[in-house]
Amino acid sequence: MLRYMHRSGFQPFSQRLLPRVQSVAVPRSHGVQPSAVRHVRSWSNIPFITVPLSRAHGKPFAHRSELKHAKRIVVKLGSAVVTRGDECGLALGRLASIVEQVSVLQNQGREMMLVTSGAVAFGKQRLRHEILLSQSVRQALHSGQNQLKEMAVPVLEARACAAAGQSGLMALYEAMFTQYSICAAQILVTNLDFHDEQKRRNLNGTLHELLRMNIVPIVNTNDAVVPPAEPNSDLQGVNVISVKDNDSLAARLAVEMKTDLLIVLSDVEGLFDSPPGSDDAKLIDIFYPGDQQSVTFGTKSRVGLGGMEAKVKAALWALQGGTSVVIANGTHPKVSGHVITDIVEGKKVGTFFSEVKPAGPTVEQQGEMARSGGRMLATLEPEQRAEIIHHLADLLTDQREEILLANKKDLEEAEGRLATPLLKRLSLSTSKLNSLAIGLRQIAASSQDSVGRVLRRTRIAKNLELEQVTVPIGVLLVIFESRPDCLPQVAALAIASGNGLLLKGGKEAAHSNRILHRLTQEALSIHGVKDAIQLVNTREEVEDLCRLDKIIDLIIPRGSSQLVRDIQKAAKGIPVMGHSEGICHMYVDSEASVDKVTRLVRDSKCEYPAACNALETLLIHRDLLRTPVFDQIIDMLRVEQVKIHAGPKFASYLTFSPSEVKSLRIEYGDLEVCIEVVDSVQEAIDHIHKYGSSHTDVIVTENEKTAEFFLQHVDSACVFWNASTRFSDGYRFGLGAEVGISTSRIHARGPVGLEGLLTTKWLLRGQDHVVSDFSEHGSLKYLHENLPVPQRNFS
């Protein structure tokens, strides 16, 4: 190990070579003297960490979200992770990625240690090469022929391979870590090193000294001399674990060094309740001590000494010793490049071992409950679903005082933390609750003919009839911010459409959401379907929820454009319904009515500026500049204290213009508006298509021909003539309520009400019909006759 003597002690050689490396003092917490200084390095001028990492070791972390506070971390790389598929040689790309992640965490001020396999595989590759080369030389000398016979490679003894591979493996790690200005040191251990008290103290002291000098220890069992493992010697009480493989070594090292987190990387996603690959195998998100009986272990991995059972035993031993553990996949090409950093960031990766069981069900269990409850909900009679919604509407008015009291708590806690527009969204009132109740009753009335409605009937052949009927989508995940009134709206739509529902509200509305969800479940209980709607109260991050593609069928975000974009980015294999921006335009034509314009602009911009259907850009025909129409618009905006941003063309007409807009594609969400000038209706349409978000766009004109041209050519979800943008709303459309406004071009578009939460299935009724009967020489012919669709009669 290359080090040089500094006046204050030893320093890694690489720090002397890199003058751009900076040092920041960080307090220590793991058995090091208070005077010791921890060096946190940064590249260029960007520090990796701005706050010290400090945690007193004791109990393991209770929740994944706490893993970001882990300071001392052991990463165990299984044989399947570091070796190639042919078990001869190392997976260099995978190793490079792991080294990069460890280096990033090390440079954040954490103390990283590696327990690595790979010496046997690396040595096997070297020895096979040497043996083949030696055989080819001997064969050439003895045969005198240019063509060599096929040579068999003898079975190589593992300890010999380890002896030949250790130096090469360490040299490889050293070269990789050097790229990140980090030094590494190799430590080879055997079981005796932990059982001999003096050797234990020496090992502990060496490791602490290496960590103090910002060096990454790379630990491995000394496979060149280690004896075969004794059977049934894994666990010998709390203080002793037999080091028979790198799993047990990593656990022993983690506890010995009072490590915060042990990450065990293998070739499977984590711990499954049955062998991975079996039909019913489910990944266990959180594993608790005592759950072993619920798990069926399979065979061990293709290489290495330990299987999953050995990993679980080692993990539980480490957990008992105060170290948190995560078992995850380090070989999958899509995740291996960030698996370690994802775990430390608290993302739902692999299986997390915890001693603290949650009070309620996990989000996966809630999803299953919602699916089961949703299926029961869909089988109810339409009148029963309507009765549930009517009961919920009554509860909103009957329990208004309790609801408003909970909402008051949310507002008091949010004061000073949320912007004014968000506080308005968070606020509930008696009038809001009354409007909600009216909307819910509208949904109940419209739900009578929703689920099971026949859309099409076709006679395929004699006694073979096909129907297309409406059915629920399945399980919906609705994520909403600062909008507690969203909960009963969405719940009513889910009930009417027979869908299971997972709700994830913002922390700022926790009190309001809790009581509204309780009232929703009270209403559902009248027909025994309480579980159909679940409120997610666990610490699940939104990004983790978006990965539950086996549970969730559709995600609907309700919130800021940033929230929608984040969810669209995070969703893996789950459709997302929504719009990322609400950049609504109003084009004031040269033939616009003076009386109508100011009313429409005021209502669109000032009535509720935080709404996604509020006006953001006002396009004015050039002929209206310096006319009474234009003057009245500007005067009204000033009276309403609306800040005006000038578009480039509008600014060019003014001597003293308002601040020129930075972008023509901005959703202000406040009392601000962009004004731009256009020469024609076609230019207005072109501007909308270039800078709009396909949400809602309006034309103000008395010319019907111009209006119809605008209505037909603007490609947005909602296009209006002489009407406020604020009409783009499910309640105002008569849908009762909406789960959101979609700018998507597939499935549902615009305000999404009850119809948008339904899909279809096909029902075919026959009598022993087979396709071969319809072949060229078959006895039957296709008829494909359209049949009348039965009409439901609801009195």
Q: Which CATH first-tier class of the largest domain would you pick?
A: Alpha Beta
Radius of gyration: 34 Å
CATH superfamily of the largest domain: Acetylglutamate kinase-like
Number of helices: 24
* Main sheet summary: 8 strands, mixed
**How many beta-strand segments?**
28
Shape: globular
Strand content: 15-25%
- Protein structure class: alpha/beta
Order of strands side by side in the largest beta sheet? 7-8-6-5-9-11-12-10
Mean pLDDT across every amino acid position: 83
pLDDT < 50 runs, ≥5 residues: 1-52, 229-243, 301-306
Name of the CATH architecture of the largest domain: 3-Layer(aba) Sandwich
The count of domains is 3
Instruction: Kindly state the percentage of residues in helix.
Output: 25-40%
What is the CATH topology classification name of the largest domain?
Carbamate kinase
Ends distance:
87 Å
What are the salient characteristics of this protein?
795 residues; alpha/beta; Carbamate kinase; Aldehyde Dehydrogenase, Chain A, domain 1; Aldehyde Dehydrogenase, Chain A, domain 2; 3 domains; eight-stranded mixed beta sheet; six-stranded parallel beta sheet; 24 helices; globular
Protein architecture, described:
With 795 residues, the protein is of the alpha/beta class. The chain folds into three domains: 64-135 and 156-226 and 241-353, Acetylglutamate kinase-like (Carbamate kinase, 3-Layer(aba) Sandwich); 363-570, 3-Layer(aba) Sandwich (Aldehyde Dehydrogenase, Chain A, domain 1), CATH 3.40.605; 585-738, Aldehyde Dehydrogenase, Chain A, domain 2 (3-Layer(aba) Sandwich). 36% of the residues lie in helices and 18% in strands. It contains 24 helices and 28 strands. The strands form seven sheets. It has an eight-stranded mixed beta sheet, with helices on both faces. Strands 21-22-20-19-23-24 form a six-stranded parallel beta sheet, sandwiched between helices. The protein has a four-stranded antiparallel beta sheet with strand order 27-14-13-28, with no helix packed on it. The longest helix is centred in the N-terminal third of the chain and has 25 residues, at 119-143.
